[in-house]
């Protein structure tokens, strides 16, 4: 798959050449046969069976990246990627990620392992300046996709994305999924403990959080002030089940 090659080729550029190559080799050595499936790019679809009148705003959505956080967005039924909405800007960038060992030597605290499974995603492209010859159709100068780490903010428990220097101060893993089959649910610290929070009404304001204490975020106050729905973020391999690369 072309996108797989582009994504893997972007690892050195996004994480540092030596570090990227080293971490990929570490992953291959420690994970063995599992490394191939862990490095396969995937989208995240939302499954929600909560008994709530808001369920339809969540169930069947796709996870997107915008404003340095992970949100939900309606999915185009034909392409299975974020849909365009009437009178709105272009749809956000879909989460398009895979697993990669986080360099534990860079963490502020010492942890008793050399292998912490992290999660990365391509990120929304930076706006490019207008070129003088707008009729040019050459793609030779098209930038390769950049990668950022997915992490849970230690203070707010929001799921965010950012460079290693930012992510290292928060919970960067271990990430995994509930099984190797298509549709496996995303896990953090060994539990499928992710929820969505209605930060704004209207259907487009659902953000992904880590329910660390399994209390619907009531302990930290969010669950008492906003609607929280438990859901499963399910893996869908890029290029399968409809849709494809943007």
Brief summary of the model shown:
The protein has one domain. Helix 1 (2-15) packs across helix 2.
Characterization of this structure:
The protein is an alpha+beta fold and 246 residues long. It has one domain (2-124, 145-237). The chain is built from six helices and 14 strands. It has helices spanning 2-15, 17-31, 34-38, 55-58, 164-167, 222-225; strands at 42-47, 62-66, 69-73, 93-94, 97-102, 116-122, 147-152, 159-162, 175-177, 186-188, 194-200, 205-210, 228-230, 232-237. Mean pLDDT is 80; it is low at 1-10, 12-24, 26-33, 129-140 and 242-246.
Strand and helix map with partners:
Blueprint: H1 2-15, H2 17-31, H3 34-38, E1 42-47, H4 55-58, E2 62-66, E3 69-73, E4 93-94, E5 97-102, E6 116-122, E7 147-152, E8 159-162, H5 164-167, E9 175-177, E10 186-188, E11 194-200, E12 205-210, H6 222-225, E13 228-230, E14 232-237
Antiparallel strand pairs: 1-14, 2-3, 2-4, 5-6, 6-7, 7-8, 9-10, 11-12, 11-13
Helix pairs in contact: 1-2
Keywords: Signal
Task: For this entry, give a set of tags.
single chain; disordered N terminus; alpha+beta; about 250 residues; four-stranded antiparallel sheet; disordered C terminus; globular
């Amino acid at each position: 798959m072309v996108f797989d090659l582009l994504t893997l080729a972007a690892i050195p550029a996004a994480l540092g050449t030596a570090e990227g190559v080293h971490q990929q080799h570490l992953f291959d050595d420690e994970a063995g046969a599992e490394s191939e499936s862990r490095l396969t790019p995937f989208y995240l679809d939302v499954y929600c069976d909560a008994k709530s009148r808001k369920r339809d705003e969540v169930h069947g959505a796709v996870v997107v990246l915008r404003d340095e956080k992970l949100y939900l967005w309606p999915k185009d039924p034909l392409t299975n990627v974020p849909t365009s909405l009437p009178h709105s800007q272009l749809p956000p960038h879909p989460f398009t990620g895979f697993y990669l060992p986080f360099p534990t030597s860079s963490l502020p605290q010492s942890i008793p392992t050399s292998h912490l499974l992290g999660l990365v995603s391509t990120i929304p492209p930076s706006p490019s300046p207008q070129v003088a010859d707008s009729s040019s159709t050459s793609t030779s100068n098209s930038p390769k996709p950049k990668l950022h780490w997915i992490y849970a903010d230690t203070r707010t428990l929001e799921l965010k994305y950012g460079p290693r220097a930012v992510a290292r101060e928060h919970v960067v893993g271990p990430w995994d999924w509930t099984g190797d089959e298509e549709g496996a649910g995303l896990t953090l610290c060994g539990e499928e403990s992710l929820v969505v929070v209605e930060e704004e009404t209207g259907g487009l304001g659902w953000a992904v959080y880590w329910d660390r204490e399994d209390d619907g975020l009531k302990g930290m106050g969010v669950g008492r002030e906003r609607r929280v729905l438990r859901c499963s973020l399910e893996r869908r391999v890029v290029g399968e089940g409809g849709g494809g690369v943007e």
